[in-house]
Input
Amino acid sequence: MKKSKFYISTTQMIMLSFLFAVLIGSVLLSLPFSTADGKPVPYIDALFTATTSICVTGLVTLPTFSTWSIFGQIIILIMIQIGGLGIITIMSGILISFNRRFGLKDRILLQDAFNLNTLSGIIVFIKKVLIGTFIVEGAGTLLYMTVFIPEYGLRGIWISVFNAISAFCNAGIDIMSENSLCPYALNPSVNLTTSLMVILGGIGYVVWWDVIRVSKDFPDKKFRCFSSLSLHSKLALSSTAVLLILGTAGFFIFEYNNPLTIGNMSLFDKLQVSFFQSMTTRTAGFASVPQQNLTNTSAVFSLFLMFIGGSPVGTAGGVKTVTMAVLLFSALAAIRNKEDLSLFRRRISRQAVSKAVAVVTVSFMIMFISTILLSSVTDADVIDIAYETVSATATVGLTRDLTPTLNLWGKIIIIVTMYLGRVGPISLLVAFNVKKSKNNIIKDPVENISIG
Output
């Protein structure tokens, strides 16, 4: 009788890679020379920092700029880069540089890690992702230098590198102050650079290459270029644009007379800060105004934007723009008694709709359970708790100043939530890619039920 071999699926491989990276990072951060004063921090805070870095969330229990030494900051930045790209992508890039050949299992693992629909050109795709990432992060570093070098001197170079990688990976961690980017709320250069980095990272690599492909034909097609994009790119770009515009308009209206945020600013600055708030809630995590000073309406509005997040196959978190678009329009199709969902004259498969429902459901369950658990161990306001748990689930990193006050159980709950928020929806999508069993020929009879 043959012994069953121990088998790790690609889903488990992805989840374990994040877990091992978190554990290794937490051990390094718990060492004395990782801190600025040479005294080791409590392990739970090292674990929390490692988790928020690998999961590119941005919630921190200790100030990054004053707690960690240069060594500690380098470890955090490496974890942010690994978390943004994925440890499997990083390792694949290293193997590609050594001309290692990739077998079928390796390609399937990469396909699952990026949630791609085909194995075709997967190695070329990884190369383009790595090269494109470093080019964009390099450009962002140069743009940041124009502001930070005059202000911080040579240290401004390190700040620029850190901020560029953190912004592109949608991590939201900085090494300048305890107030994130609040000191630069009215600085157009910092706001524009950060916004560009966050949006480029969150829009998704697939959209990058599709836009580049179509832009080559721009002289001939001109304004018809959008129609030449793939359906995925159309949904990602249009959803992102709509959410940014609605978000900016919403915050501008809800905060217009709030003296604690934009109430006393000029019209241009109100628009600038409103746009940044709209952008950063899409899993960026940088704050240009204290989140605890937002009106309740703006806070609830932020929860909605944070839950959606960025676009698939990028560095952003959340349930993703394309997912919500499919879910919304499938609901509208059901209301109109349409059997099929069509967008931009293309029919969406039932499997895609099922995936959208599953991802949103699982993410909501993680958020809901986390909110209940955190409410049981802290006496903070419910809106502050919800802000914390949605931020952790969608790997955003915005907080209403609750994170530094968390007790041991609160930290553990948020650590688990950040981890599940980073790998849960991904693992679910991978699980849905499993082919149907050939033995599943006989199906159960259908019976109607009442819905709604």
Summary: The chain has one domain: 10-432. The first strand starts at residue 341 and ends at 343. DSSP finds 19 helices and two strands in the chain.
